[in-house]
Amino acid sequence: MEGGPHPGAREGFGEAVNERCVTCGEPLTEPNVATCNRCGNRFHLVMRMDTPGKDCGEVWINEEFLALEFACGPCLRGAAPGIEAERPPRKRYARRSDTRAADLVRERRRRRR
To answer: What angle do CA 90, 79, 51 make, to 5 degrees?
Structure first.
């Protein structure tokens, strides 16, 4: 077996990387760093509850894809540099007092055919 780092090892693990947090501007220190899924910038995020540190963003579980999603502070506020705030168009529903929900579902299915 040859010497040298393990192929999966990351350089600088546990040390300061030459980057700054997109939210607070302070230097980033591995392993409490995450990458935003929207803008791709890195920010402080403590990955374990028993580890002290700073959270400059959030992580949550996407229920549709069952995956972790990460977002930095600016993206959460809708102010990410170079990223337009994306808001899906709001659906409008007309109230129908004389129709049952089951009838509406049947009508939609009939229209799709």
So the answer is: 105
Reference 30, options 51, 49, 3; nearest CA is 51
Structure tokens at 90: 């709001």
Residue whose structure tokens are 């930095």: 72
Distance CA 72, CA 57 (A): 4
Residue 44 pLDDT:
93
β-bridge partners, 42: 35
Residues 85 and 96: their CA atoms lie apart, in Å, by 33
d(CA 63, CA 113): 30
CA–CA gap between residue 77 and residue 80 (Å, rounded): 8
Q: Where is average pLDDT lowest: 7-16, 43-52, 61-70? A: 7-16
Per-residue pLDDT, 81: 54
Look up residue 89 and give its DSSP letter.
P
pLDDT at 42: 94
For range 47-70, the mean pLDDT: 90
